[in-house]
Design a protein that fits this description.
The complex is a heterodimer of chains A (313) and B (315).
Chain A (H helix, E strand, L loop, with lengths): L1 H10 L12 H4 L9 H11 L1 H23 L31 H37 L1 H16 L2 H11 L4 H28 L2 H8 L4 H37 L11 H10 L6 H28 L6
Chain B lengths: L3 E14 L3 E14 L3 E5 L6 H8 L7 E6 L2 E2 L5 H4 L3 E4 L13 H11 L6 H14 L16 H13 L5 E5 L7 H18 L2 E5 L3 H7 L2 E6 L2 E7 H6 L4 H7 L7 H6 L30 H5 L5 E4 L2 E3 L5
Parallel strand pairs in B: 3-8, 3-9, 6-7, 7-8
Antiparallel strand pairs in B: 1-2, 1-4, 4-5, 9-10, 10-12, 11-12
Helix pairs in contact in B: 3-4, 3-5, 5-6
The chains are: A mainly alpha (313), B alpha/beta (315).
Chain lengths: 313, 315
Amino acid sequence: MVITQNSDQRNIPLELFAPESADSLEMERISRVHQSAIYDGWIRLRKNKGALVCLAVLIILTLFAIIAPIVSPYAYYQTDYMAKLNSPSSAHLFGTDIFGRDQWTRVWYGTRISLLIGLCAAAINIFIGVIYGAVSALLGGKVDAVMQRIIEVLVGIPSLILVILFMMALPPGIWTIILALSITGWVQMARLVRAQILRMKNMEFVLAARLLGTGTWTMIRRHLIPNTVGVIIIQVMFAIPSAIFTEAFLSFIGIGLSEPQASLGVLINNGYSVLRGSPYMLIYPAVTIVLIMVCFSIVGDGLRDAFDPRMKG
Amino acid sequence: MAETLLEVSGLSRYFTVGKRKTLKAVDEVSMTMRRGETLGLVGESGCGKSTLGRTIIGLYEPTAGTVRFDGATVTAGRHRELALRMQMIFQDPYTSLNPRMKVSDILAEGIDNHRLARSTADRSQRIVDLLESVGLSQEHANRYPHEFSGGQRQRICIARALSVRPDFIIADEPISSLDVSIQAQVVNLLQDLQREMGLTYLFIAHDMSMVRCISDRIGVMYLGSLAELASSEDLFAKPLHPYTRALLSAIPIPDPKEERGRRRIMLKGAVRSPIDMPPGCKFASRCECRKDICLADAPRLREVEPGHFCACHDV
């Protein structure tokens, strides 16, 4: 068999063979269609159903937090002593509290305050943490050593004590809480960014940029920060719920926001005191805070997977 | 004879390891390079080839010695001024491109840093020219590095180095992480570019046959020092240093009959640790023709024949 095949092949006239086109540009073609990085990331995020659902939940919660207190016929501080501790009804969707305030309005108002605190605290954390970490890693040597000792001192003191001290010293209010949460919140971010940049500092693309004459600030902005974005996003997605949670905790033990202001923590504290008679007072704010915390961390994971170009299949 | 472009004299770079121990990564290397030539630098892993390259270009501060480039002394860390004269191509094309930047921005980095482009149109024209000079096309400009193959990435690195129109390029093992078919492509590209733009290369590698193909002169390094430096033909025709002879005998020959007949020099003993070296020749522990003087006194690189330098007591 084999022999006949061979002899057959020998009989094929040479003219029938044509050289395979070896167009050099054709060989360099990348068949994948080009898309912008953001659209690309969105496509991959869309495949992650869990993250999508959580993103939707977060968007809905945020919309409610913005719109519901405005649309509602009741103000969050408006009391009605004729309607104390009403169960949920068509007039009061989530019922009323011991002063007859509409719980529906207060839950959404509280969500708004909690989200605001979380976002602001996280924004301040990113700002301080990224700059501190980047400077520490890039300057290195003695500067780095001193900056790291400062961080260690901050970490050494339990952050709750610092936060509580701060709350005592300043007039109560949202901005005091945000400031207090930022006092120690940036430390984790600074450490992560420093570690990431230390790792990258001697990678070849950074050396190549240095050889091209790129200055320190451009280096941070163009090379180092974009490559730490993944870590930063994850950290932010943990920082927001943790700030919300710390605020809730402070309000719960009574040193957070004061009445008639509402945050989810204040509402949970109020609900806790009437738990037996009116469980709905606790359930609605508690469910909201749980949704916020869970959704943020799932969306955070999803975002990291979606926007890292190295994860492309 | 063409003018001298680079003059390295007594260049050393030591690293401190632990307490009071020094690692002599580069130890008193002296050499000169003419404009337009290619000097191949070979040696086994860890012999200081890359450190030498990085010290020359100012990424590392030299412990001793000077680098003079085109008449001016090179100061470490002053990359803004140096950038337009010297560039480097790195070994690993996977880590030498920023994964978050488009190819167009990677190529334009040097152009932007030094305001070389007169207008936005000029900037994009330069990017297209660079891409075409390394065999890629305009449509690659908007893509990210991970979309390219290893060979393509290495060519992008070459284009990036060329973007500031340097005279001198240090190629730090630019082909050793590519597969063989792509290696030839990249080497040919480097040679074409050298002809077109009159570039000078310091070509670091450990593949002898590839170095022979691209280099005018070859330097052999052993544990931080130059063992032998000669023109390509001389070195292959008449290797003087015992280490060079051993290296050359390890190159495979395609003809099996010839391959079977020849004698390979098998080095015995291990490479010495470069940390806290004793006096004497660094190669003495593995040398076939060791004499007493080799253990006492380190040989200096001297011109044995015109243009052929060797550091050995035996020649």
